[in-house]
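Appendix B. Worked example

We walk through a single record from start to finish. Start with the input: the chain for 3-methyl-2-oxobutanoate hydroxymethyltransferase, Campylobacter portucalensis, length 264.
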Amino acid sequence: MHTKKVTINYLKNSKQKLTMITAYDALFASIFDGFVDMILVGDSLEMSFGGKNDTLEASMDSMIYHTKAVCNGAKLSYIIMDMPFGSVISKEIALKNSVRAYKETNADAIKIEATFNNLEIIKHIIDNGISVVAHIGLIPQNSRCESGYHIKGKSDNEADSLLNLALNLEQAGVTMIVVEGVVESVASKITNSLKIPVIGIGSGANTNGQVLVWSDMFGFFDKFKPKFVKRFLNGKELVQKALTNYIDEVKKGEFPSKEHYYKG
Ligand code: KIV
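Next comes the structure step. The output line below is what the pipeline stores for this chain.
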């Protein structure tokens, strides 16, 4: 449990595995704060909470709204704001939106889904004083153009290209890399080749840490469950059981009882 604000130096020098979880509001951010090293305000909120099929509808306004809420609830964990689809498509647009993210929230860093195409844009943002976490491998914002979600690094070509991209991103100055949906041996090689922390999701155990979407890992989101998700709680079942108790007690007139009354 952290008692002081987590800094990038702490994350870079930690000898222990790092933990990251998503949060989208002050309430849950305050529950997770200090337990995990990092909280990610992911655009996954479009799917887990917005009921959408992908993350593409997230906007700068909505990401800023949710990041502000998370920053209100969390004072210890390192906070990362996801940059939504279309928000970093040119140097000018990317810098304007990244500066906005820093000015309007207390996020410690922003996260960008990275390819060779936006490497120079990412460098431009970093050169202007903003910490960037790069997200590589299976990048969810590509799901429409790739017709779904596909594991990356299966061929030698793809594996080499991912390693090369990670090395270039480190060279450009990114703070950390999130590696999603990458075969375990490739994620492992990337981790061993970089000095900055590599955080995995669906990429095996040999990265410097792990990230999961909270509603997946606590069993609230059950539309589908990717192979890499472990349910640490049966959240939906527990909430529905409590809800059934509430409904029963209201119907039987057992709730509210005297202890919940105001006396005149
Ligand atoms: O949006 C998100 O929650 C993410 C994680 C899955 C890494 O990008």
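Two observations about the output. The beta strands are 18-22, 38-41, 78-82, 109-113, 132-137, 176-180, 198-201, 209-212. The mean pLDDT is 97.
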